[in-house]
Specification:
The protein is α/β, with parallel strands linked by helices and 211 residues long. The protein has seven helices and nine strands, in the order ααββββαβαβαβαββα. The termini are far apart. The relative contact order is 0.13.
Length: 211
Protein backbone atom coordinates (compact mmCIF):
# COMPACT_ATOMS: atom_id res chain seq x y z
CA UNK A 1 0.00 0.00 0.00
CA UNK A 2 2.86 2.38 0.82
CA UNK A 3 4.56 1.78 -2.54
CA UNK A 4 1.24 2.29 -4.38
CA UNK A 5 0.70 5.62 -2.57
CA UNK A 6 4.20 6.70 -3.49
CA UNK A 7 3.60 5.84 -7.13
CA UNK A 8 0.52 8.05 -7.17
CA UNK A 9 2.70 11.06 -6.31
CA UNK A 10 5.24 10.17 -9.03
CA UNK A 11 2.80 9.37 -11.88
CA UNK A 12 -0.09 11.47 -13.20
CA UNK A 13 -3.55 10.46 -12.08
CA UNK A 14 -4.59 9.73 -15.67
CA UNK A 15 -2.23 6.76 -15.65
CA UNK A 16 -4.45 4.94 -13.19
CA UNK A 17 -7.73 6.01 -14.77
CA UNK A 18 -6.96 4.75 -18.25
CA UNK A 19 -4.01 2.76 -19.47
CA UNK A 20 -3.34 0.87 -22.75
CA UNK A 21 -2.41 -2.14 -20.63
CA UNK A 22 -5.67 -2.04 -18.69
CA UNK A 23 -8.42 -1.16 -21.21
CA UNK A 24 -11.92 -0.51 -20.04
CA UNK A 25 -13.80 -3.83 -20.01
CA UNK A 26 -17.57 -4.40 -19.81
CA UNK A 27 -18.92 -6.01 -16.69
CA UNK A 28 -19.80 -9.68 -16.80
CA UNK A 29 -23.48 -8.92 -16.33
CA UNK A 30 -23.53 -6.90 -19.59
CA UNK A 31 -22.19 -9.73 -21.73
CA UNK A 32 -24.54 -11.46 -24.15
CA UNK A 33 -23.67 -14.77 -25.77
CA UNK A 34 -25.13 -16.15 -28.96
CA UNK A 35 -27.19 -19.31 -28.69
CA UNK A 36 -25.29 -22.58 -28.91
CA UNK A 37 -27.22 -25.42 -30.42
CA UNK A 38 -26.57 -28.96 -31.48
CA UNK A 39 -28.67 -31.88 -32.59
CA UNK A 40 -28.35 -35.57 -33.23
CA UNK A 41 -30.48 -38.24 -34.81
CA UNK A 42 -30.71 -42.02 -34.71
CA UNK A 43 -32.30 -44.10 -37.41
CA UNK A 44 -35.72 -45.24 -36.36
CA UNK A 45 -35.86 -43.04 -33.29
CA UNK A 46 -36.49 -39.59 -34.79
CA UNK A 47 -34.39 -36.55 -34.01
CA UNK A 48 -33.24 -35.07 -30.76
CA UNK A 49 -31.98 -31.52 -30.37
CA UNK A 50 -30.94 -29.21 -27.57
CA UNK A 51 -30.57 -25.42 -27.69
CA UNK A 52 -28.81 -23.46 -24.97
CA UNK A 53 -28.80 -19.67 -24.71
CA UNK A 54 -27.00 -17.33 -22.30
CA UNK A 55 -28.44 -13.82 -22.06
CA UNK A 56 -27.47 -12.14 -18.82
CA UNK A 57 -25.60 -13.10 -15.74
CA UNK A 58 -27.76 -15.51 -13.80
CA UNK A 59 -30.01 -16.15 -16.81
CA UNK A 60 -29.95 -19.61 -18.36
CA UNK A 61 -32.48 -20.73 -20.95
CA UNK A 62 -32.57 -24.30 -22.21
CA UNK A 63 -35.02 -25.83 -24.65
CA UNK A 64 -35.05 -29.48 -25.58
CA UNK A 65 -36.89 -31.56 -28.15
CA UNK A 66 -36.36 -35.21 -27.32
CA UNK A 67 -38.62 -38.07 -28.30
CA UNK A 68 -39.26 -40.59 -25.53
CA UNK A 69 -40.43 -44.01 -26.68
CA UNK A 70 -41.93 -46.24 -24.01
CA UNK A 71 -44.55 -48.93 -23.74
CA UNK A 72 -48.02 -48.43 -22.36
CA UNK A 73 -49.24 -50.22 -19.27
CA UNK A 74 -52.84 -49.26 -19.88
CA UNK A 75 -54.24 -51.92 -22.23
CA UNK A 76 -52.82 -54.88 -24.13
CA UNK A 77 -56.11 -55.99 -25.69
CA UNK A 78 -55.73 -57.81 -29.01
CA UNK A 79 -52.09 -58.80 -28.44
CA UNK A 80 -51.00 -62.42 -28.20
CA UNK A 81 -48.53 -63.76 -25.66
CA UNK A 82 -46.89 -67.10 -24.94
CA UNK A 83 -45.72 -68.39 -21.57
CA UNK A 84 -43.13 -71.15 -21.30
CA UNK A 85 -43.17 -72.74 -17.85
CA UNK A 86 -40.79 -75.29 -16.32
CA UNK A 87 -42.41 -78.18 -14.41
CA UNK A 88 -39.34 -78.69 -12.24
CA UNK A 89 -39.94 -76.95 -8.88
CA UNK A 90 -43.59 -76.71 -9.88
CA UNK A 91 -44.64 -75.59 -6.41
CA UNK A 92 -42.84 -72.35 -7.28
CA UNK A 93 -43.38 -72.07 -11.03
CA UNK A 94 -47.14 -72.62 -10.80
CA UNK A 95 -47.47 -69.67 -8.44
CA UNK A 96 -45.40 -67.57 -10.82
CA UNK A 97 -47.70 -68.61 -13.65
CA UNK A 98 -50.82 -67.74 -11.65
CA UNK A 99 -49.44 -64.27 -10.97
CA UNK A 100 -48.64 -63.87 -14.66
CA UNK A 101 -52.09 -64.93 -15.87
CA UNK A 102 -53.82 -62.65 -13.37
CA UNK A 103 -51.71 -59.71 -14.57
CA UNK A 104 -52.47 -60.43 -18.24
CA UNK A 105 -56.16 -60.39 -17.37
CA UNK A 106 -55.78 -57.11 -15.49
CA UNK A 107 -54.39 -55.50 -18.64
CA UNK A 108 -57.19 -56.72 -20.90
CA UNK A 109 -55.42 -59.69 -22.50
CA UNK A 110 -58.00 -62.33 -23.32
CA UNK A 111 -57.49 -65.95 -22.29
CA UNK A 112 -57.65 -67.11 -25.90
CA UNK A 113 -54.70 -64.83 -26.69
CA UNK A 114 -52.41 -66.59 -24.20
CA UNK A 115 -50.67 -69.90 -24.94
CA UNK A 116 -49.04 -71.71 -22.00
CA UNK A 117 -46.42 -74.34 -22.83
CA UNK A 118 -45.01 -76.60 -20.12
CA UNK A 119 -41.46 -77.98 -20.43
CA UNK A 120 -39.59 -80.45 -18.19
CA UNK A 121 -37.19 -77.96 -16.60
CA UNK A 122 -35.68 -74.49 -16.82
CA UNK A 123 -32.91 -75.76 -19.09
CA UNK A 124 -35.48 -76.45 -21.85
CA UNK A 125 -37.24 -73.09 -21.58
CA UNK A 126 -35.00 -71.29 -24.07
CA UNK A 127 -35.29 -73.98 -26.77
CA UNK A 128 -39.09 -73.93 -26.80
CA UNK A 129 -39.26 -70.14 -26.47
CA UNK A 130 -37.10 -69.73 -29.57
CA UNK A 131 -39.39 -71.95 -31.61
CA UNK A 132 -42.42 -69.96 -30.47
CA UNK A 133 -40.66 -66.69 -31.21
CA UNK A 134 -39.79 -67.69 -34.76
CA UNK A 135 -43.46 -68.42 -35.42
CA UNK A 136 -44.05 -64.62 -35.24
CA UNK A 137 -47.44 -65.19 -33.60
CA UNK A 138 -46.67 -63.47 -30.30
CA UNK A 139 -46.02 -59.97 -29.07
CA UNK A 140 -43.72 -61.32 -26.34
CA UNK A 141 -42.82 -64.61 -24.70
CA UNK A 142 -42.67 -64.97 -20.93
CA UNK A 143 -40.15 -67.55 -19.69
CA UNK A 144 -40.86 -68.93 -16.21
CA UNK A 145 -38.73 -71.27 -14.15
CA UNK A 146 -37.12 -71.73 -10.78
CA UNK A 147 -33.56 -72.85 -10.04
CA UNK A 148 -32.74 -73.50 -6.39
CA UNK A 149 -29.19 -73.97 -5.17
CA UNK A 150 -28.23 -77.45 -4.04
CA UNK A 151 -25.09 -79.11 -2.72
CA UNK A 152 -23.29 -79.25 -6.08
CA UNK A 153 -22.30 -76.83 -8.84
CA UNK A 154 -25.24 -77.98 -10.96
CA UNK A 155 -27.10 -74.82 -9.91
CA UNK A 156 -24.50 -72.54 -11.52
CA UNK A 157 -24.44 -74.51 -14.76
CA UNK A 158 -28.23 -74.45 -15.15
CA UNK A 159 -28.68 -70.80 -14.12
CA UNK A 160 -26.02 -69.54 -16.54
CA UNK A 161 -27.26 -71.72 -19.40
CA UNK A 162 -30.87 -70.62 -18.97
CA UNK A 163 -29.96 -66.93 -18.88
CA UNK A 164 -27.88 -67.26 -22.04
CA UNK A 165 -30.58 -69.32 -23.73
CA UNK A 166 -33.35 -66.79 -23.13
CA UNK A 167 -31.13 -63.92 -24.29
CA UNK A 168 -30.17 -65.82 -27.45
CA UNK A 169 -33.83 -66.55 -28.11
CA UNK A 170 -34.68 -62.84 -28.11
CA UNK A 171 -31.81 -62.04 -30.45
CA UNK A 172 -32.44 -64.93 -32.86
CA UNK A 173 -36.22 -64.61 -33.09
CA UNK A 174 -36.59 -60.84 -32.87
CA UNK A 175 -39.38 -61.29 -30.31
CA UNK A 176 -38.95 -60.06 -26.71
CA UNK A 177 -38.39 -63.01 -24.38
CA UNK A 178 -38.90 -61.96 -20.78
CA UNK A 179 -36.61 -63.61 -18.25
CA UNK A 180 -38.80 -64.94 -15.46
CA UNK A 181 -36.52 -67.82 -14.50
CA UNK A 182 -35.68 -67.07 -10.89
CA UNK A 183 -32.70 -68.33 -8.90
CA UNK A 184 -32.84 -68.89 -5.15
CA UNK A 185 -30.64 -70.05 -2.34
CA UNK A 186 -33.37 -72.15 -0.70
CA UNK A 187 -37.10 -72.90 -0.85
CA UNK A 188 -38.01 -70.31 1.79
CA UNK A 189 -36.44 -67.58 -0.31
CA UNK A 190 -38.32 -68.88 -3.36
CA UNK A 191 -41.72 -68.88 -1.67
CA UNK A 192 -41.20 -65.33 -0.43
CA UNK A 193 -40.96 -64.23 -4.06
CA UNK A 194 -44.03 -65.97 -5.44
CA UNK A 195 -46.64 -64.28 -3.30
CA UNK A 196 -44.87 -63.84 0.02
CA UNK A 197 -43.39 -60.71 1.57
CA UNK A 198 -41.37 -59.95 -1.59
CA UNK A 199 -44.39 -60.04 -3.90
CA UNK A 200 -44.82 -62.23 -6.96
CA UNK A 201 -42.03 -62.06 -9.53
CA UNK A 202 -44.38 -63.53 -12.12
CA UNK A 203 -46.38 -60.31 -11.93
CA UNK A 204 -43.28 -58.19 -12.47
CA UNK A 205 -42.18 -60.23 -15.48
CA UNK A 206 -45.64 -59.94 -17.04
CA UNK A 207 -45.65 -56.15 -16.64
CA UNK A 208 -42.43 -56.14 -18.65
CA UNK A 209 -44.07 -58.28 -21.35
CA UNK A 210 -47.11 -56.01 -21.82
CA UNK A 211 -45.19 -52.73 -21.74
Amino acid sequence: MASFAAAQHLLPASTFRSSPLLPNRPSISSLSYKPLSFSSSMAGFGQAGVAIEFKDRGSFVQTATVRHLMGSLTRAEGLRFAVVVARFNEVVTRLLLEGALETFKRYSVKEEDIDVVWVPGSFEVGVVAERLGKSKKYQAILCIGAVIRGDTSHYDVVANSVAFGVLSTSLNSGVPCIFGVLTYEDMDQALNRVGGKSGNKGVEATLTAVS
